[in-house]
Each structure stands twice: as structure tokens, then as C-alpha cells.
Amino acid sequence: MKRLAALLAITFAVSVPLAGCNTFKGAGQDVQKAGEKMEDAAKKRQ
Question: Which interval of the chain is the signal sequence (predicted)?
């Protein structure tokens, strides 16, 4: 039982940072797309 608990703890400890990286990567892509749309809108107004 202790071995299972240790394995679950290790799995959790490794998976949380990886999920966080994907979240920040996705947020960065969203911000980049928003910036591109603003840039396109600014070019159309010129």
C-alpha cells in the first residue's frame, strides 16, 4: 500500500508541472493570435 501511495505521489508531482507548461503555452498562443489580429486591424486603418 505504501508503494502504491508513493507511486501515485510521484506521478502527481511529475504531471502537475507538465500540465502547467501546456497551459502557459496555450495562453501564449492565444495572446499571440490576439496581437496578430490587432496588428491586422491597425494595418487596415492606415
Answer: 1-19
Query: What DSSP string describes 3-42?
Result: HHHHHHHHHHHHHHHHHHHHHHHHHHHHHHHHHHHHHHHH
The per-residue pLDDT for range 14-40, each reduced to its tens digit, is 777 767 777 777 778 888 988 898 888
Q: How far apart are CA 32 and CA 23, in angstroms?
A: 14
Q: How far apart are CA 4 and CA 10, in angstroms?
A: 10
Q: Is the dihedral of CA 7, 9, 12, 14 positive or negative?
A: negative
